[in-house]
Amino acid sequence: LISSATKSLRTETEILEKKLQDAQMKLAEKDGDKEKEIQSLKRLISELEFQLTMEKSNNESFLDKLRKEIKHKSDELEKLTQERTQLIHSLSQVQEENSLLQDTVRRECEERFELTAALGRAREQVLELRRLSGTL
């Protein structure tokens, strides 16, 4: 009876040890798979971090380029605004000078008209004086 029970326990122990070994092998296999997956994820994280760094660098470079372009355009706009202001001032001066010249021409034309009229009257007087002196 003891021998049979011992044999039965040994058989059961061997079966349990085999199951334990199988379970340990499966566990070791799962641990290996998990380790591979962890390494794969670490590589993926490294690649993504590198891509992120590159994107940040590209974005900073692009932003620097845009800032320089904005500064250039701003300087150009300021220069054009100054030129416009100067041109408006020059135009105002030219218009004022033109108005002054037009007024001068108008006055000279009036004087010429008056002088022409006075010359006409003087001719008439000279002619009248000649007729009078001829009759005398």
UniProtKB/TrEMBL annotation:
It comes from the Eukaryota. InterPro entries: LEKR1. Keywords: Coiled coil. Residues 63-97 form a coiled coil. It comes from Dicrurus megarhynchus. This is LEKR1 protein.
